[in-house]
Amino acid sequence: MSSTDVKHSIAGFYYQVMLACKELALLLNTSTSDESYVAVEYGADVRIYNHEDIRMEAKFYKDNTFTRYKEAITHSLYNFFVSFKGSTPQVRYRFKCNVPVNIKDLQFFAEWKTTTEFTEKAKYIKECFVYESVEKDPVKDGEYKSFQTYYDSMHPKMKKPHYKQALIKHLAALSDPGEYIKYIIPSLIFDDLELTRFIKQIDFDFPQAKVSKYESITNLKSAIDLELTKYNGTLTAEEKNKIMLLLLEAFLDSTVTDDSNVRTIKIADCKAIVENHQAQSLRHFNKIEYQELIQEIELELSDYEYILRKSENSDYVDDIMSILIGLKEQLHSEMDSFGVDKVLRRFVMSRRSYPLEVMRLFQSITEMMVKTNRNEESASVVDVEYLNNIKIGENLRFSLRTLPAARSARSDASLIMSNFIDHTQENFEISKAAGGETIIFDTDSDICQLPLDEIDSTIIDIYKVKDNKQHQEFYKSFRYRCTKCIKLSFVGKCPFLQELKGD
Question: Which of 132, 202, 264, 427 could form a disulfide with 39 if both were Cys (CB 3.0 to 4.6 A apart)?
Answer without folding.
Answer: 264
